[in-house]
Specification:
single chain; Porin; two-stranded antiparallel sheet; 1 helix
Length: 372
Amino acid sequence: MGALLSAGPSSFAIAGPSITVGVALGTDSNVFLSQTDPQHSLFLQTTLKASVETDATQTQRLAWTLRGLSKHYLQYGEADKLFGDSIVAYRYALHRSLLLGLIQTFSYTQVQLLDTEGNTLPREQFVAYANELRGYVQALPTLETRVTLGGGVRYKDMKETADQLIPDPTDPAAPPLVLHFPSLDHHGYFLTAEAGYRRGSGLANLSYEYAVTQYNETQANNQHTSQTGVKLVTNPLLDLIQHTARVSLGESFTRWIAASIEGQGRWNIDPFEGDLTYRQWDGKTQVDLALAGLARWTNVASYRTRIYAERTASADSSDRRERFVDATTMLVRSWTPRLSSSLQYQISRKTSNVAGDRFTTRTALIGMEVSY
């Protein structure tokens, strides 16, 4: 949102559009995020970013951004991924210290088999269309500080899976049973509060979000449903409540070195019987180094731990816990103002106290980007 915060004289001039296209060839050591049988594959990744906007110095500003990513595995096409976002943002300055904004985001997701955390998808194929409409009011009490209050609504429409006929395990001669897949569509609303402070090359942000998600057809789980599979037909529809607090600090120490640190805490509440209630903690550090004008070296380390209120089936009866660790290092070399190349290596690891819920994957890629 930071690029939307410049107020200035009244007019509505259109700036030139920009387009960036990227192509990369990479290797993935564990395509299916398996604990015991990792499968290796090369992949081809393409990215697109396009934007057009009005002059950033104007009182009114309208911006449109389109982003897309496609990942095709050469050996295992059934694991392909496709993501896309369209973002339209409008900002109006009532005064140099008071801004109003509206942001509409439309997203498309198509993944198969697994999500990014290694969880088996509840459908043969996960295709989702998501919409979010967000409004905000931002006050700029001083040149260094800003306070933002906002809120909005979200909706996600997921492709339905047709009912399936399966043989009756108790009587093979009986008519087949109908396996029904309820809709995963859901909607919700959220409220946000954010404060930011900038001084010199340093920046600090603190934010809070309250969000409610309501599923249209999916029922709430009974306690331990994710362990036992038991769910009563009389259960109400699933509602989830989330409280999320975030803090971030950033500093550019010199023109060659910049660093940032981020932290987040989330409390997800399942108000029915708590099967999906969890606490989550996230941390991330990033260091950027300019190597004598030859390349930019970026190093990112992130950590996530998630603790569910439900109990595991293990003998120690401890809370179910998941931990994610990710480390990425990337070199970017700009050959011309419009052409750059990159090298990236990433290692991701998930651990859990639930048997079989672990994986490690390593990816490496080399790519090029062209801007127009």
